[in-house]
Design a protein that fits this description.
This protein is mainly alpha-helical and about 140 residues long. The chain has five helices and no strands.
């Protein structure tokens, strides 16, 4: 596990291609296939609103992934990452994106979609539980 990751994993052109592919694929998958009946979460019949919510969510995830990959490139230039550290990095990316999705959707559902209905406060246990759900969704994508 002390083997250094190959350079193509942090090559700028490959990272950009991966980010574009993941973003486009996620956006198409979520809007065409509508997995996990996410449409029911938003309590709206408007396709435009559903597309807007899913687009903002996917772009938010892509932004986090972009920042993570940029940081990964800088870290790899100074300290060559082993395969084990790279796997840990990817796992941390998934957890951060899952947590960000959870917080975003919890806040979105509380303050934007139904302001008259206050959901339970953002307890750490809820965030932990919901972030695991988003992690599963992210992995399945």
């Amino acid at each position: 596990m002390k083997k250094i990751i190959p350079n193509y994993l942090v090559k700028k052109s490959n990272v950009i291609k991966m980010l574009l592919f993941v973003t486009v694929f996620s956006l198409l998958f979520i809007n065409i296939y509508t997995p996990f009946k996410y449409v029911e979460w938003f309590k709206t019949n408007s396709k435009a609103e559903q597309f807007l919510f899913s687009t903002v969510t996917v772009i938010g995830g892509a932004l986090i992934l972009s920042l993570s990959r940029l940081l990964l490139c800088f870290v790899h230039k100074r300290h060559k990452l082993s395969i084990f550290k790279y796997i840990i990095w990817i796992g941390a990316e998934m957890l951060v994106i899952a947590l960000a999705y959870t917080v975003f959707n919890k806040l979105l559902m509380t303050y934007v979609i139904s302001p008259q209905f206050s959901l339970a406060p953002l307890y750490l246990s809820h965030l932990f539980y919901l972030s695991h759900i988003w992690l599963c969704i992210y992995i399945l994508n």
